[in-house]
Amino acid sequence: AQSVTQPDIHITVSEGASLELRCNYSYGATPYLFWYVQSPGQGLQLLLKYFSGDTLVQGIKGFEAEFKRSQSSFNLRKPSVHWSDAAEYFCAVGAESNYQLIWGAGTKLIIKP
Amino acid sequence: ETGVTQTPRHLVMGMTNKKSLKCEQHLGHNAMYWYKQSAKKPLELMFVYNFKEQTENNSVPSRFSPECPNSSHLFLHLHTLQPEDSALYLCASSRRLAGNNEQFFGPGTRLTVL
Q: From the CB of residue B14, how many other CB atoms can be counted at a distance below 10 Å?
């Protein structure tokens, strides 16, 4: 079955510390991978996406993600978080032939001052 | 207005009420989506429209009725809802209906059913 797993419901990180949010997927076709962020009271905004090529992709707001096919993972990273990064982060998987994205349940990022 | 807008932002309704949610996209996109977002659950795709034609209805109860009069506007008509329908309802749009197209989201309507 197709699925996306974000193992961490909540993560708490100190401001200035590094961040890694995990995403694992199970998908039959070659995946298109996305990370979206949802700030409080807002809709979802695309951070970055991976379709093909270089497995390390750069996104907005200083985020990057690495696609590891052997581990079926697409983890999101940031070297130094800011208080404004407090939000909920969603991983999603799609395919050229299927417009329906499979979504993870989200990881809520809490920033400690 | 830019992007995707949704009105109202908050809605409280009784189980016997009829109300409508409105979504408008100012991006010139051809595909529009309704999602339901509940706490700690993945987004649930409800309906999809492509060039005003409905292409997906993910087994959504008939108390939810979508309408897409043109490629820029999308409505969700609500009637005789249940308390478990309380959630954040998100509208999204994309240039094309394809898995590699970025979806642009509105801020959502927070619905509470009493």
A: 10
Interface residues of chain A, partner chain B, Cβ below 8 Å: 4, 9, 32, 34, 36, 41-46, 49, 51, 90, 94-106
Please, what is the average pLDDT of chain B?
93
- pLDDT (tens digit, 9 = 90+) per residue, A53-101? 999 999 999 999 999 999 999 999 999 999 999 999 999 998 877 788 9
A75-89 exposure pattern, b = at least 16 Cβ within 10 A, e = fewer: bbebeebeeebbbbb
Q: Do A106 and B40 touch (CB under 8 A)?
A: yes
The whole-chain average pLDDT of chain A stands at 94
A41 CB neighbours in chain B (<8 A) are 107
Polymer length of chain A = 113
Q: Per residue, what are the HEC states of B25-40? A: ECCCCCEEEEEEECCC
CA A76 to CA A24: how far, in whole Å?
A: 11
Question: Residue A60 in contact with residue A73, Cβ under 8 Å?
Answer: no
Task: Tell me the mean pLDDT in the region B57-85.
Answer: 94
